[in-house]
TrEMBL record, chains A, B:
GO terms for molecular function: phosphate:acyl-[acyl carrier protein] acyltransferase activity. The gene is plsX. Coiled coil: none annotated. Its EC number is 2.3.1.274. Belongs to the PlsX family. It comes from Meridianimarinicoccus aquatilis. It holds the Pfam family FA_synthesis. This is Phosphate acyltransferase. Catalyzes the reversible formation of acyl-phosphate (acyl-PO(4)) from acyl-[acyl-carrier-protein] (acyl-ACP). This enzyme utilizes acyl-ACP as fatty acyl donor, but not acyl-CoA. Residues 352-371 are annotated as: Disordered. The keyword Cytoplasm applies. Homodimer. Probably interacts with PlsY. GO terms for biological process: fatty acid biosynthetic process; phospholipid biosynthetic process. It is found in: Cytoplasm. It catalyses: a fatty acyl-[ACP] + phosphate = an acyl phosphate + holo-[ACP].
Length: 371, 371
């Protein structure tokens, strides 16, 4: 279908992107983060880095990776935001931490996108403080990719946990921001948007969802997305929707439930194949098949929650991400950096007050001049 | 651990249980429902049925199953509640439908438990109308079993979708009712209860959750369950909790997300094994292992959402349940029928106003005389 095809123009001429990296946020310290940077650098000549953290440690790690030579600036940051740091503490005392400085590199224009494996709440609070919300946006959101039956292999879900509540107006903004992200992240011209609810009949659900339903339906008339109405939890991996909109509480529970279910099944599969000598032999033969499956649902391949609604791009990588996961987040950062993503989202949100016929900067026609 | 051991006394002397069955509610009509009844009857001599629906159709189906002879009364009900029926319509016009009459058989005492594969909203609305809420209960809930890493293989989650909201008082009642259900359904003396939230730190989450947290912690001091505090979506299958408490909106999204994820993985697993001649051969050898896995997470094995908080036991089976699924729901009905489950829940809720030291009827000591 033409309307859901890739915007090949978006990919035509890659431009250089500098990614600022908070190297101190991950569970396993800076080593897997620098390894992920090196991996990305080897695959993509148009990417360079500014990395923040303990400069002595980082210089050592970076100097071991020849592929990073001349493409990775180390900047010292003494402080570290821990996983226990409350968002309010992070905002008051965060200056000088690797997280704060990595965000500030986007604010100053030294980098186009920031990647951190750190504490989500602190990262969002600091990002809001330093980058500020796009005019017209009430609550920023975190968008994540969800393995699906669609040809591209993924759907977008938001909010994955930036805020614990959302009113109808917020959900409408999530629909706009999420479809902008699907155009860039999934290459879809006219993403299909669904609103997460407990039943597909229109008489079910909470009052704010009914209001949001009507507001999104209205907006879809003048915006480049198709609104398919309510969807249910079972539709998150479905091929009848591309962007699933929900509040951050529900979205976070859904995300962790999906990850938890996948993990349980993978453990049980291992147990099942470890049951007898025959089943262990079968597992050996089945290994390529199991690897194909794993590759398809590997959470490391879809690593990276994108913060939407800020004047700058920030990507939250899993705290436990290894080099594959970090590299996936950096790849996403590169794609967002290609198109000046925050400007697209801002234009889309602004278009709500003065609707235009799908020719705003996020349809892939005007972005080249939008910066 | 002794405190989590099975109440073997509960299983000592089975007493006869009559299950009233709404035969017209399922997606595939009455045939798989009668087949499931026959399956259960063959496995359990202490079970008998009253089945409601088109008597001509049902007499034919029942007469073909010799195991049901003398153990299954057919009662004619002309009306059928369809999947599109709104709960309000069902309450106004439901009299004479197979669903209404099946519920009424529990009200009249002809049966101890009702099983229906029909429309959840209509079934809950009618059940509330006919059986009434237990004194002190504000919102009834639907409890479901969730495949888990616990020795018994399952956790309890509620509310799976009876209502779309719940305040702190409701969540406390869910904790009490859910732990009563875990004692009967999972045979645990002191179930561990967790409150679903987006973070395990106590500073996160919605205001009503903080209040519920404190209320449940207080109640756990005098009730036979252990409160472990907040849990996240990833803990639904975990072995550090037995009962997960949440509102019906979040619970329903989580349930359908979990089912949807399991279904996606199972499809991808099939694709992976269908990739080449070698992988198809491997699949053949792996078949017993895959069957073991399937048995472990097969939703048909955990079929049956139990309605909690009513003066009578009602079980909602999946609309698409086949005979295995229907039989699983009937097995659950038999277990609830063994212990006069609603009386246990009522005693537990009543004990909140006058706390007792874990010796109420739902600890498995007094149920024999409670009816």
């Amino acid at each position: 279908m033409a309307r859901r095809s890739h915007n090949s123009a978006d990919r035509a001429m890659p431009k250089p992107v500098t990614v600022s990296v908070d190297a101190m946020g991950g569970d396993a310290g800076p080593a897997p983060i620098v390894a992920g940077m090196a991996w990305s650098a080897a695959k993509n000549p148009d990417i360079s880095f500014i990395v923040f953290g303990n400069s002595e440690t980082l210089e050592k790690l970076v100097s071991k990776r020849s592929v990073l030579a001349g493409r990775c600036e180390v900047r010292h940051a003494a402080g570290v935001v821990t996983m226990d740091t409350k968002p309010s503490q992070a905002m008051r005392n965060g200056k000088g931490t690797s997280m704060w400085e990595a965000i500030d590199a986007v604010k100053s224009g030294d980098a186009q996108v920031c990647v951190s494996c750190g504490n989500t709440g602190a990262l969002m609070a600091m990002s809001m403080l330093r980058l500020r919300k796009i005019p017209g946006i009430n609550r920023p959101a975190i968008a994540c990719l969800w393995p699906s039956r669609n040809p591209g292999g993924f759907n977008v879900m938001l909010d994955a946990g930036a805020d614990i509540r959302a009113d109808a107006e917020d959900l409408l903004q999530y629909a706009l921001m999420g479809s902008s992200y699907a155009r860039v992240g999934l290459g879809l011209e006219t993403p299909r948007v669904g609103l997460l609810n407990v039943g597909t009949e229109e008489h079910k659900g909470r009052a704010e969802l009914k209001l949001a339903h009507d507001m999104i339906a209205d907006a879809s008339k003048s915006a480049p997305f198709e609104f398919i109405g309510y969807v249910e939890g079972g539709d998150l991996p479905s091929d009848r929707v591309d962007v699933i909109v929900t509040d951050g509480f529900t979205g976070n529970v859904a995300l962790k439930t999906g990850e938890g279910t996948a993990k349980l099944i993978s453990e049980l599969l291992k147990q099942a194949f470890n049951y007898s000598a025959l089943s262990r032999f079968a597992a050996l033969l089945a290994l390529p098949s199991l690897k194909r499956l794993r590759k398809r649902i590997d959470p490391r391949r879809v690593n990276g929650g994108v913060f939407l609604g800020l004047n700058g791009s920030v990507i939250k990588s899993h705290g436990s991400a290894d080099e594959t996961g970090v590299s996936a987040a950096i790849k996403l950062a590169f794609e967002l950096g290609q198109v000046d993503f925050p400007a697209r989202v801002a234009a889309r949100v602004a278009s709500l007050s003065s609707p235009v016929q799908g020719d705003g900067p996020d349809t892939g026609q005007a972005y080249g001049t939008s910066k």
